Amino acid sequence: MRPLYILAITIALAACSQETNAPVARVDEVPISGESLRSFVEKLPVGLRNPEGGDAARRQYMQSLIDRQLILKEALAHGLDTLQSVKRTVDEAVDARVIALYRARNLTAQVQVPEEDVRRVFAEEGYHRERKLNAILVHTRAEIEAAVAALDAGQPFAEVARAHSLDKRSAEQGGELGFIGREAAPSLHVPAEVFNTLPLGEISAPLRAGLSWHIVRFTEDRDTPYERYRSLIEEQLFRERLAQVEAEHFESLRVAAGAALDRDGLQLMLSAAQREDGALLDTCTAPLYTFAEGQATVAAAYKALRRLNAQRSLKDSTRARTALDRLVLRPLLQRRAAREQGLHDDPDIQRLAKRAYQDALLNAVRDRFAAVEMLSDAEVWEYYDSHPDMFYHEESVEVEELLASTPAEAQWLSDQLAAGASFADLADRSVRAQAVQSQARFHFHPRDEKLYPRLVPAIYAAEPDQLVGPIRVRDGYSIFRVQGRNPGRVEPYEQVERRARALLRRERENAAFTSFVQDLRQRYQSRVEIDERALKAALPDSLVQGT
């Protein structure tokens, strides 16, 4: 059996339950149901399916569930269920799901955004129109005041823009940047108030534009379709109202629990953080918060911050109090309230707890029995040198790209980009997965043409820094700009040493884990029973077809 396949059962089996229907196998007294086996196979990713199909696939899938039970038995036999790391992992998984369930029932469900409120914001806050923007951009306040003086003296706006504006593209057009909408205005350093209230033809007061200064005017307005902004406004109103509901609910929980910040505990925590005294912060039993019943210690609060990588919030006392309330006290009070509502007894939470417990045991077994000793530099170099294909960086093109679902939306995005907006500013309007996270920046390889048969050839044909599109592609309409090209090459060892070390470590861990599982199979061979007829009934031919 492939090592990666054995490792994959940890994840793939997590969603499978063992019902009380007729078992297809037993490991000692533990039955493995036909339903759990069938569910496992149905949810198995295509890449992990047995390509042979038939009985070979049935045996492999059955063995995966048997292996899981063997590993769990070994974990219990070695007392790994008593490890604090196992308990912590389970508690964190359950807490996260319980809090999410509590928020859904007690907070999110309370927030309503009526259609008339969305339409009111659309009309009153400037979303109902786009405005043709003209601007003059200069370095200093003195320069912008000189430009204003020239305009006051009667010099045409277009002449002043051509003579002084730093934005050469718009300067050539007499300062014209094109139509912009209400949501794009801030990214162009046009405050919402200016966008909403500046009359056509009038020139604004000098405005900061990052490190520069500019003045703006609008020369034309046109209507915007309501549907373009409906979801954006609805989401904005929902977030605002949810924040208000959360603040009020948090205060009510605080009062009900009698929660109070212990100032001495806070000062102790801040002082230790300033000294970077991690040992004290990890063990301090002084109270940080007190309740009518019980307390939360400095150590518990610090561990909560550390799990979220938020320890730096302790460097400033004002920031620390806000962070501690939001990241420590609020979840703590919500967990207490959730327990009072019996949410920990919810069947879904109970199933989650069981899955998290078993997965934590599986990981503990791997850490115990498949650990690899320190790798030498020579071993890592040998791995790198003998696996050049693992470190070959294929030719690629770096692009900024936005994907729109309709021609009208694509043209609007193109107009905004031509007017000076950045791809990152508009990333939230793209329907491309990961657009927001990547700030609309992607890289494409020649092999990606199979996935993007129209987009990739267009990208490779484009000139650097050329705004291209909209072009029709498989999933919509694309607008992009090529940022640069990277030739294919084997990356230097110095750049990939850490990756090479991690890959070699994982390879050896996989081999050790595979050997461990094979040993378990031999030791438990006489204690495993498989019902061949039940196995074939649970996995009919339609589920075990080859690939």
Poorly predicted tracts of residues: 1-20
* Number of DSSP strand runs: 16
The number of helices is: 20
The SS-based structural class is alpha+beta
Cα Rg: 31 Å
Give the termini separation.
17 Å
Question: How would you classify the quaternary structure?
Answer: single chain
What overall form do the CA principal axes indicate?
globular
User: Biggest sheet: strands, sense, closure?
Assistant: 4 strands, antiparallel
What's the overall average pLDDT, rounded? 90
Helix content: 40-55%
Output the strand order for the largest sheet: 4-3-6-5
Q: Provide the β-strand percentage band.
A: 15-25%
Describe this structure in words.
The structure is a single chain. Strand 5 and strand 6 form a beta hairpin. The chain is an alpha+beta fold and 547 residues long. The protein has helices spanning 3-12, 34-43, 54-77, 84-106, 115-124, 141-152, 157-164, 168-171, 192-197, 226-257, 263-274, 278-283, 298-307, 317-340, 347-369, 377-386, 407-418, 455-461, 493-524, 532-538; strands spanning 23-27, 30-33, 129-138, 176-180, 207-209, 212-223, 260-261, 287-290, 295-297, 392-393, 396-404, 441-444, 467-473, 476-486, 489-490, 528-530. The protein starts with a helix and ends in a 9-residue tail after the last helix. The protein contains 20 helices and 16 strands. Helix 3 crosses helix 15 (347-369) and helix 10 crosses helix 14. The strands form five sheets. Strands 4-3-6-5 form a four-stranded antiparallel β-sheet. A four-stranded antiparallel β-sheet has the order 12-11-14-13. The protein has a three-stranded antiparallel β-sheet with strand order 2-1-16.
